[in-house]
Amino acid sequence: MITPVLRTPRSSRVRLAVTAHVLVAAALLTGCGDSGDEGKSSGLRIGVAPNAVLDAVTAGLRTDSELKTEAGKVSFSALRSPDEMRTQLTSGSVDVLTLPSNIAANLHSRGVDVRILGVLDGPVDVLVGPADAGTSWESLRGKTVHIAFKGDVNDVLFRSLAEKNGLKPGEDVTVVNHPGLPDLLTAVGAGKADYALLPEHQASLASARAKSAGKPKKPVLTLGAEWKKKTGRETLPTYAIGVRGKYADANPEVVRTLHQALARSTQNAVSRAADIAPGVAERTGAPQPLITGLLGRLDPAYRTAADVKGELTALFQELAAASPALLGGKVPGAELYVTEGS
Q1: Rounded to whole angstroms, what are the CA distances from 136 to 140, 141, 209?
Q2: How far apart are CA 126 and CA 148, in angstroms?
Q3: Which residues are CB-neighbours of 280 under 8 A, at least 6 positions away?
Q4: 168 vs 230, 234, 311, CA distance in Å?
Q5: CA 29 – CA 84 distance, rounded (Å)
Q6: How far apart are CA 67 and CA 12, in angstroms?
């Protein structure tokens, strides 16, 4: 049994996390049964959301010789929305993909053949604020926080954590929701949103734009760190690596090798940041200096579903209590997780 949790040692860690804000609200999801016809594969098709952090931590899969030897041809595509994920999964056009863990649960509950292979451990969704802002929940009292997508994971988690820290949303802290990330990024860059909750790389991008406009920003809180403080959990597993169930069943050796390749790839995102940044910039459109600086602050790790099943269950229970629709109506069972080959 392998335990692919590789880290770059450092005394102060900023963990890697990207949430569903990279995509669109889970409410867009519609159910559909799996129509893919899968036998043992002669190749591996990987879908990655066009986000600099996700692209960086999976970049090593593009050149991993052991993965290519076991899987055959390895190809990549960009998946930009839950609807596109569902379509590609049900048509059998993608085998492995990055996706928010709640969307994996939602799709699975609606009959789509997807399971969670593992999670990308970690930064995080960052609450940025003015340069002179405090860095506690109490410092947010009387302030307005801007968040994309009302009712999505980050919105639900922020409101829940605010209450756990003595702030009642709508009374002690105002939450303003935006229809999407572009709208929120524009508001931050124009100086119209003093406090904004954003995933990386968007948090760094928005902060750079705000600084250019004379409204410098700094990190105030990160959801991952605050979640761990209040729940005692090891991680906030909001982003997952998903796999089509039929592919996993037919290709156990590829799955075993993929676990190891993902562990190497997440480590390389830090140790070889300068080498992978140009490719990430080309694929995502994020500025190369921003990517290099961001990766230098990260401490990513890949954990198998077998290792973090309890962490995922804790997150899903929290989401189900506030908004069951995020999970397709219920907390998923053990069948969601790939435990073989780990």
Answers
A1: 7, 10, 24
A2: 13
A3: 52, 55, 56, 59, 286, 288, 291
A4: 16, 26, 26
A5: 10
A6: 32
What distance in Å separates the CA atoms of residue 20 and residue 87, rounded to the nearest whole number? 18
pLDDT tens digits, 26-50: 333 333 444 444 455 579 999 999 8
CA atoms of 281 and 207, how far apart (whole Å):
18
Digit-coded pLDDT (tens) for 174-232: 999 999 999 999 999 888 999 999 999 999 999 988 998 899 999 999 999 999 999 99
Taking alpha carbons only, the member of 99, 77, 55 closest to residue 277 is: 55
Q: Return the biggest CA–CA distance within the chain.
A: 58
The rounded distance, in Å, linking the Cα atoms of 263 and 312 is: 19
pTM, rounded to two decimals: 0.85
Cis? peptide before 201, omega within 30° of 0: yes
For 166, left (φ over 0), alpha (ψ -120 to 50), or beta? left
pLDDT digits (tens, 9 = 90+) for 314-329: 999 999 999 999 999 9
| Nearest in space to 197 (alpha carbons), one of 210, 172, 178 | 178
Distance CA 212, CA 335 (A): 49
Contact (CB, 8 A) for 48 and 58 = yes
User: If you count DSSP H runs as helices and E runs as strands, how many of each does the chain have, helices first?
Assistant: 13, 11
What would the 3-class secondary structure string for 251-299 be? CHHHHHHHHHHHHHHHHHHHHCHHHHHHHHHHHHCCCHHHHHHHHCCEC
pLDDT of residue 342: 60
DSSP string, 131-185: TT--SSSGGGTT-EEEEESTTSHHHHHHHHHHHHTT--BTTTBEEEEESSHHHHH
